[in-house]
């Protein structure tokens, strides 16, 4: 995991030049070195910057809109990115097939990818719309709500689902 990925943090692309810290930004006269945007400190808690980072503030400014992305705001919210990652990591620890074993690509409708590992099937819908597939098993985790109707499942666009098989 890269810093902030588990919170769904976007890259900060509008940092003013006077707050930048990245040496490559200065070596390239501001033409390169936009690494600062992914090094903005994590938001932990609260409604205002520095979002619990510490009493001295942070070395780079945090966007005002990050209050909904704090660890505090996402903890316990089943629809949050943080809880999705926590569940995925817990499942990976619990289910050996997610971390080890052979992988085999499975047939899937156009726009979907499917691969199998011991005890688990992963489907990825790369389409910008929902897609229907035969119900492959019991959903373990999904990045978006899956609809099950009898012997079929509808997976939302741009989503990934892990199935127990």
Describe this structure in words.
The chain has 165 residues and is of the alpha+beta class. The chain folds into two domains: 1-94, no CATH class; 97-164, Sandwich (Immunoglobulin-like), CATH 2.60.40.1180. The chain is 14% helix and 22% strand. The chain is built from three helices and eight strands, in the order H-H-H-E-E-E-E-E-E-E-E. It has helices at residues 23-27, 71-74, 81-94; strands at residues 104-105, 112-117, 120-125, 131-134, 138-142, 147-149, 152-155, 159-164. It has a five-stranded antiparallel sheet with strand order 1-2-3-8-5, covered by helices on one side. Strand 1 (104-105) and strand 2 (112-117) form a beta hairpin. The protein starts with 22 loop residues before the first helix and ends with a strand. The model has no long low-confidence stretch (mean pLDDT 91). This is Alpha-glucosidase. InterPro entries: GH, GH13_cat_dom. One of its GO terms (molecular function) is alpha-amylase activity.
């Amino acid at each position: 995991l890269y810093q902030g990925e588990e919170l769904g943090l976007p890259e900060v692309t509008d940092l003013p030049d006077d707050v930048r810290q990245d040496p490559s930004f200065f070596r390239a006269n501001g033409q390169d070195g936009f690494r600062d945007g992914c090094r903005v400190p994590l938001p932990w808690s609260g409604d205002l910057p520095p979002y619990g980072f510490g009493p001295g503030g942070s070395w780079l400014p945090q966007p005002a809109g990050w209050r909904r992305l704090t660890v505090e705001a996402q903890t316990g919210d089943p629809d949050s990115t943080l809880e999705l990652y926590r569940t995925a990591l817990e499942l990976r620890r619990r289910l050996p097939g997610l971390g080890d074993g052979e992988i085999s690509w499975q047939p899937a409708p156009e726009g979907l990818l499917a691969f199998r590992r011991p005890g688990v099937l992963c489907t990825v819908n790369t389409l910008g719309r929902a897609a229907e597939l035969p119900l492959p098993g019991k959903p373990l985790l999904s990045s978006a709500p899956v609809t099950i109707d009898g012997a079929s499942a509808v997976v939302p666009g741009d989503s990934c689902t892990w199935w127990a098989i």
